[in-house]
Model the fold of this input.
Amino acid sequence: MGPLVNRDAVQVIIRRTMKNFSSYVNKVIKFRFCGKDLSFSLSHGLFSSFDVDEGTRLLLKGIAQQVDLESTGSCLDVGCGVGVIGLCIRGRLPQAAVVMQDRDALAAAFAAENGRENGLVGVEVQCVLAFHGLEGRLFDLVTANLPAKAGQPVLEAFLRNIGAFLTPRGVAAIVVVAPLVPFTLSTLKALGCRIVHSEITKKHTALHFRPGEPSSAGSLPPPDLAPYIRGRQAFSAPEVSYEIETAWSLPDFDTLGYSLSLSFDALRVQPVKGELLVWNPGQGHIAAYLLRRHARAISGISLASRDSLELEITRRNLQTFGREPRVAGPAPSEIGLLDILPPASVDFLVASPHPIPRVPWQTEMAEAAAVLVKPGGFLFVVTTSTEAHRFLDDLHGWRLVESRKQLGHRALLLKRQ
Done:
């Protein structure tokens, strides 16, 4: 399965949708790599929001000391976050082709913005799952700070797939947290990989390795969603039962959380018809629930999210219901919806925001919904009670139809005036 958006278009989407970029920035830090000074904007909504983390520092130290950078013409940084690793490599090698991937559109936005702020033009940023959309492309260096909570099947697939994207002389440089070291070493051994460098600290281990002989480059099929799938699970909601596949590293994989239970209860009071948009669909629960209840009345379904994995798993689940949703694409923020969907194209918008401290998502959501939702259409928002109260401070031209509370969460159903 390929990327959800064209990789040339993602740069445009990122730059246009982050017009309130400064409100997302928690801190700007300086960082020096191989004699070049760089600066990085960090965010409360992303990993390592106050400084470059210890694992990344350890990985970059080993790359500077052990990798033949003069012979490195290309680099792929997987799970790039705000772009520290990939941009440090590009700063040291201004002629190298550097690709940075992250499944989180906000991370991709920060990576692209940090590249622009440092004058590192031509760096390619992709908001996709690991290795998606790279068929036929090879790199001299593949780097990653592997996430601790990704799930072992995902990490095993990542380590297995690296070789298919390395040149014959290429090397992979990764860093893992201490609890993952035994699993990582045993997996690399089983794959026949050759470790050429390692450095161990109390919390992290950095490893440089090459794929087993003969090289596995080009020998694997294109990456798909299979490593992310936990399994198929049955769920029961009011008046509806359904089955969906659930993915690693997303919540609500075996039971329905409070916000979902509250959403189902609140959505019972309003028929849903016409064009449906689901923002941040998670595993696909709400989309599946609404399809089961209002399949004939729903003429079309669009999906958008910060997280590419949410889009992929929800699309896959809705396909099993015989519906092909329109994946509008990843967007880093609520206001980003305006760049991927046409005005007055939605009858019912279901939003599950991912709040970031001090970021006014309520204003962005109201502005985006006012443009996208047709007159007389509906906006459904489920969030924490505190965040919902702030949204209701100014209804922005919406009329409150229904409000439900449960255990610190609140669901709001609003109609456009």
Summary: Residues 1-13 have pLDDT under 50 and may be disordered. The first strand starts at residue 27 and ends at 33. The domain at 227-416 is CATH 3.40.50.150 (Rossmann fold).
